UniProtKB/TrEMBL annotation:
CDD domains: HTH_TipAL-Mta. PANTHER family: MERR-FAMILY TRANSCRIPTIONAL REGULATOR, REDOX-CYCLING DRUG-SENSING TRANSCRIPTIONAL ACTIVATOR SOXR. This is DNA-binding transcriptional regulator, MerR family. Residues 6-75 form the HTH merR-type domain. Residues 81-108 form a coiled coil. The keyword tRNA-binding does not apply. Gene3D superfamilies: 1.10.1660.10, Regulatory factor, effector binding domain. It comes from the Bacteria. GO terms for molecular function: DNA binding; DNA-binding transcription factor activity. Pfam families: GyrI-like, MerR_1. Keywords: Coiled coil, DNA-binding, Repressor, Transcription, Transcription regulation.
Length: 268
């Protein structure tokens, strides 16, 4: 028989808006048990137990594991403080990772805004300095070695997968001026976390930029157009061509690959 001021399991579950099976499980693991059991093993809870359950649910809302909640409930203030500090550390780590994800999404959206600009049109733009981490020189490396080196380099320097990094390649201006079809890159790069960790600084200044959609085999076309433009307008080029994928795609869909190429102009 139900006692006065007691709640059956269904009533308690409805009151705090949880599933009855959750209360059964809490009872099984000894976290939260009914005050008494009646005929047919019916579970009955007192009104005072509602506050105990609310405490458990509040800690669960903080992503505290049930085993830790059980320890907190049976422990002292120090245990409670330690558990909350652990949760705070977890939250800080998650916030840091979410900030990294947000930064990656913002950068990809910025890339898309560039990719939506007219293709195969040369622009003169102003760039701030950029701090980069360079790979070992890529001279005389096969395409397979190049890809393996790039993946290993990213895994060694950063937590993201390759496609979630700000990455690209450098090729010496003189090499391309001599032969726009030259495909031997000098370095692979990713964005450095700070100027202190950088191994190369892309100088601030005026740059020629071109956006190209098409497979890698046709990349000589935008390079040739950049070179022709610089010669027609007497704009001497300096340093490296900086090449990066604005829109990566799978190998079987290379026609949708969108690449941006930048090159610094001397004294403009």
């Amino acid at each position: 028989m139900k006692k006065k001021n007691s709640l059956r399991i269904a009533e308690l579950a409805e009151l705090v808006d949880i599933n009855k099976r959750t209360l059964h499980y809490y009872d099984e693991i000894g976290l939260f048990s009914p005050e008494f059991k009646g005929e047919n093993d019916y579970r009955y809870y007192t009104l005072k137990q509602v506050f105990d359950l609310s405490l458990i649910l509040s800690l669960k809302e903080l992503n505290m594991p049930l085993a830790e909640i059980k320890k907190v409930l049976s422990g002292d203030l120090y245990d409670f403080k330690l558990s909350l500090q652990n949760r705070l550390n977890d939250v800080d780590r998650k916030l840091e990772e979410l900030e990294r994800i947000r930064h990656t999404i913002d950068r990809k959206l910025h890339y898309i805004s560039i990719a939506e600009r007219p293709h195969m049109e040369v622009e003169l733009i102003s760039c701030t300095a950029d701090h980069l981490l360079l790979s070992h020189p890529m001279e005389n490396r096969s395409p397979t070695d190049w890809i393996m080196d790039a993946i290993a380099f990213v895994h060694d320097k950063d937590l993201h997968f390759l496609a979630n990094n700000e990455y690209g390649t450098l090729i010496d201006v003189d090499k391309k001026l001599e032969n726009p079809f030259a495909e031997q890159y000098d370095y692979f790069y990713i964005k450095a976390a700070s100027s202190e960790s950088a191994t190369h600084t892309k100088p601030a200044g005026s740059y020629l930029r071109i956006v190209f959609q098409g497979p890698e085999e046709e990349l000589h076309q935008p390079y040739q157009k950049l070179i022709d433009f610089s010669r027609q307008h007497t704009l001497p080029l300096d340093g490296y061509f900086y090449e990066r994928a604005l829109h990566d795609t799978v190998h079987d869909n290379q026609t949708n690959l969108i690449t941006e190429i930048q090159v610094r102009v001397k004294n403009v």
